[in-house]
Every structure is written in C-alpha cells, then in structure tokens.
Design brief:
alpha+beta; 2 domains; two-stranded antiparallel sheet; 37% helix; globular
Length: 86
C-alpha cells in the first residue's frame, strides 16, 4: 500500500484530503479533480488498447486514466521513469 500511495501522491501529484490508520484498517483519499467512471466491454477495451498502445489485450479489467492536459508528454515520461507501466 505504501508503494501505491507514494506513486499516486508523490509521483502523479494527487493531493491528500484525508487519511486514517485505525484498528479497522488504513486508507487515504487523494483528490483527482473532476473524474468520471467509464464502463466498457472487453471489445471496447481491446479497441482502446489498440488505439493507445498499438496492441489489443494489454490492459487488465481495471483501467485508470488521468488527464494532465498540455503537460502530458512530460508527465508521461516522468511517470514511466518512476514505476508506471504502459
């Protein structure tokens, strides 16, 4: 969990709004700005994989997409250098 928190908080740059460490468990909420939930079938998942990385079947059943606007090329390279996977 520490590695995942470090990645999204310190590498991606999401801001922490709440965290807890209780006997019932530990968690954190990171603010990601405006977000959306996209539900797609496997065919469309393969279409997106082909479009984004040139090969179907690359992504798993859960996809996370982040919008970095004009800083996308720099942020993408930074994230790949710090543990992100294509």
């Amino acid at each position: 969990m520490d590695e995942v928190i470090d990645f999204y908080k310190n590498k991606v740059g999401l801001k922490e709004s709440l965290s807890w460490n209780e006997k019932t468990g530990r968690g954190i909420i990171l603010e990601a700005g405006k977000s959306s939930l996209e539900l797609i079938d496997r065919n469309h998942k393969d279409f997106i994989d082909n479009m984004e990385v040139g090969e179907a079947g690359v992504s798993g059943d859960v996809r996370i997409a982040l919008n970095f606007g004009e800083s996308l090329p720099e942020k993408s390279n930074f994230l790949l250098e710090n543990g992100a996977k294509r």
